[in-house]
Design goal:
By secondary structure, the protein is mostly beta strands. The chain has a single domain (5-53, 61-275), classed as Jelly Rolls. It is built from no helices and 17 strands. The protein has strands spanning 27-29, 65-67, 77-80, 95-98, 101-109, 114-116, 118-126, 129-137, 143-151, 162-168, 175-182, 187-195, 202-209, 212-217, 220-225, 240-248, 265-275. Strands 2, 4, 5, 6, 8, 13, 14, 15 and 17 form a nine-stranded antiparallel sheet that branches. It starts with 26 loop residues before the first strand and ends in an 8-residue tail after the last strand. Belongs to the glycosyl hydrolase 16 family.
Length: 283
């Protein structure tokens, strides 16, 4: 049903030098190595029985990172700039901040004469915690949303795993999916479809803990996985970085741009919050 985002954005990790663009500008991402394992799909990924079981509430305390996009994008945010990539080409020119929102825009770039998406990665390493992102996205075929955690070192994928909070490839933006990947064989567990009008603002959040990975939509649990759901267990080998993407595509996972697609498709991010796992947390 769904093509793995490894084919559109999971190969997003930053590789090579990151060049600063001034004190108030974000870094530009060097050309990434796109990981596109053949035949790897999320279609048929098992939905664990643990999804239906409410999880124990965690007292997260105050956020250790809070981004409200009230000014220029800080140097903590790397901007993807890979306009010549064969899959999911992206441009830093399609990233902007205004009115307290981060905008990722998909559309034909006049500088390159090709259809491009956009993406950013928060350059801070995390292992475990709680992550919240409030966002919306325009309807339109040709682009897919991906919000995920990716191993710091690109070469550690797939062994170190990948935590896909949410993926939206449906052009109407009325359904979403989420997955966890781990192990050398890229084992996958996830939820293939849940409902929501994502043209309006929603908050996706995730707990990444030693004993579970749980996704929430507007505070309601939609997915939960425990170590026994994958032969390789849950991701725990590597620190990871948060990535937010609007990926361009025209293939099985991302329906091609069509006459109904607006000239520009915009993903708006209102805020991001990250919380540290409590020191006294006990599974």
């Amino acid at each position: 049903m769904l093509k793995r985002l490894a084919a559109i954005g999971a190969g997003l990790a930053l590789v090579g030098a990151l060049a600063a663009c001034g004190p108030d500008a974000a870094t530009d991402a060097a050309e990434p190595t796109f990981v596109t394992p053949s035949g790897v799909t999320a279609s048929g990924a098992k939905s664990p029985a643990s999804t239906a079981k409410p999880v124990k509430t965690v007292k997260w305390g105050d956020p250790i990172m809070e981004e409200n996009f009230n000014g220029p994008l800080s140097s903590r945010w790397a901007r993807y700039h890979t306009p010549d990539a064969k899959k999911s080409p992206r441009s830093r020119n399609h990233i902007s901040v205004s009115d307290g929102l981060l905008h990722l825009t998909g559309g034909v770039d006049p500088n390159y004469g090709t259809d491009l998406g956009a993406g950013v990665m928060y350059l801070k390493d995390y292992k475990y915690g709680h992550f919240e992102i409030r966002f919306r996205v325009d309807a339109g075929a040709g682009y897919a949303v991906a919000i995920l955690m990716w191993p710091k070192n690109n070469d550690d994928w797939p062994e170190a795993g990948e935590i896909d909070f949410i993926e939206i490839n449906n052009p109407t933006r009325q359904t979403a999916s989420g997955y966890v990947h781990h192990g050398k064989d890229n084992e996958t567990v996830g939820i293939d479809s849940y409902q929501g009008d994502f043209t309006k603002f929603h908050t996706i959040s995730a707990d990444w803990l030693p004993d579970r990975i749980t996704y929430y939509l507007d505070g309601k649990q939609v997915f939960n996985a425990v170590p026994s759901d994958l032969k390789s267990g849950l991701p725990d080998e590597s620190v990871m970085n948060l990535a937010i993407q609007l990926d361009q595509g025209c293939r099985k996972f991302i329906p091609c741009r069509n006459d109904a697609t607006p000239d520009k498709v915009v993903m708006d991010i209102d805020w991001v919050k990250i919380y540290k796992m409590p020191k006294n947390y006990k599974p």
